[in-house]
Amino acid sequence: MNLSYWEYKTWLSNIDFTIVGSGIVGLNCALILRQKYPKAKIIILEKGILPQGASTKNAGFACFGSISEICADLKQHSEQEVVQLVQKRYQGIQLLRKNLGDANIGFKQYGGHELFLKKQEPLYQQCLSNLATINELLFPVFNAPAFNTHNNSFGFQHIKETYITHQFEAQIDTGMMMNSLLQLAQTNNILILNGVAVEHFVEHAEGITIKTNLFEFKTKKMMIATNGFASQFIKANVKPARAQVLITKPIADLHIKGTFHLDEGYYYFRNINQRILFGGGRNLDFKGEETSTFGQTKLIQNQLETILKNTILPDIPFEIDHRWSGIMGIGERKSPIVKQLSNHVFCGVRLGGMGVAIGSLIGKELANLT
User: Fold this and answer.
1) Which residues contact 105 (CB under 8 A, 6 or more apart)?
2) Most exposed: 120, 182, 255, 320, by fewest CB within 10 Å?
3) Residue 11's Cα: distance from chain center in Å?
4) Each residue of 68-118: pLDDT tens digit?
């Protein structure tokens, strides 16, 4: 790219902080850095026209973990670790609401319901038997029993007639949230450069030299907030995981309201503007979906449509309006990676599919490493 003296002088010189990734973590990191360093020069590099990854492509679940997920986590993590994970998710949502306001993110607390297929009787009974114990375990987080049973009031088929509901779960409008964050960053004199992909960087005594697809420049500090794409830049236990999603055209008199988890959380759906947004199916092809390439597969898309027709919208005609995918960052552990990597490089990655819930908090923690 043939940059002028003016362009380098105005935008690409004397940079204090460069953030890679303009998603939830990157934008929140920039906003906290602005509070800490009012006179700092802060830029964000984003390889997409809009934020890539999952920040603008997620389902908009403000969730903390379904009961089957909590039960599964307790087999892999200590009780203290599970409580800390849920606490981070809850604190992250409260921080998001505080920073942007409920009206600006479309926050609606309709509750989150976990549905159990009829063939999942052992899992269903396990979750029911652990309901009181888990409510007690998580009471310090919510100051109330989080889970309760809820009759099948939405007419779903081929499931147990009682859901297990998390009364504090909610839904947001992902587009509204990200647009509000972008506007807030711009009003705080944070420069966002879209269509700029970092190719590699070199650390030296004074800072970092970053080479992009368009230009090369120097920065004092570098914050990596690319979640599922982090392995391109750093050695960390985080790998990409694609999530495929579809949405129906508007459905007349749609009575479904809330966020829903199905089949141990591998499927998830919600109402939005008289439509059903439905995603998941990664468990049909774990290896194939361990990719940083956007796209859809017939295997998963056909299964999503089958579940829509047979379980979620039985006897209700619907048409698919749009399909897309997002890239999450996952690992062997569910805890995010927020740490200083070297004198001038920091990262906040591996959000484990909980970016909406914990992204604001991870961005804050990342900024506070400086």
Assistant:
1) 96, 97, 172, 173, 176, 177, 180
2) 255
3) 30
4) 999 999 998 999 999 999 999 999 999 999 999 999 999 999 999 999 999
